[in-house]
Design goal:
CATH class of the largest domain: Alpha Beta
Number of domains: 2
Radius of gyration: 20 Å
Strand order of the largest sheet: 1-2-5-6-7-8
Shape: elongated
Strand content: 15-25%
Order of helices and strands: HHEEHHHEEEHEHEEH
CATH architecture of the largest domain: 3-Layer(aba) Sandwich
Amino acid sequence: MSVNKRISSSLFGYSEEEMAQAFERLLLSDNGLPEVGSFDAIYREISCRQGRPDFIALRYKSSSNQRKNIHVPGFVGPAILQNLKHKAPRTFDYLTSRSGFGRESSRKSLRRMIENGYIEQLENGAYRLAIDMNHEKPEIWTFELKLNNTKKAVFQAQQSRAYAERAIIVVPPGQEKNYERFRETIQRWHVGLATFNPITEVFRFIRKGRKARAFSPTQQIYTLSQMAAHGFPEHLCQ
């Protein structure tokens, strides 16, 4: 552990890792997060195209157990998927022009997704999402835990808004005042702020932030694929 981390830990009586362990227990508890409730899936430190948040959590609108999750690694597949729907089939030329990737790599990705049953190719050559694919997208939450280093926390939360509908910065009680100078930035990016005491396990929203559409559908699909690669809980899989 570095000198700076030892000093930070001594100021609060606990380390950032201890704070994360206690926060994970809260997220996994029966009641879940205060003012939010429980999540359908929770992951620690999943690598995304922009950053590696401390926690990513998923919430679905329904509790259907007939959901088939899409696992599409890489960058080409997610870029294609964001332009596909059950209705309104898309041509190959349309998909390549919108995704920005080469024709050969796009063909390989399309073939792979057809083999996996994610998409279908019609007689006229156009593509669409497979009929049996439930295209219900989950709401993605990210949580950045920081003892201090406010500037880094805000930057990381901004990054996660590329693929998350909600991004929350979680800090020890009393540290929220250090974020006042970032108020305008936090509001503009729809980032939430909360305090959490890992000793008492008391969580409180300072600014919940409103749900807002992720800035990059491609990055969102990629992030969901990364989580699927780590294994969705059984109740989220068909």
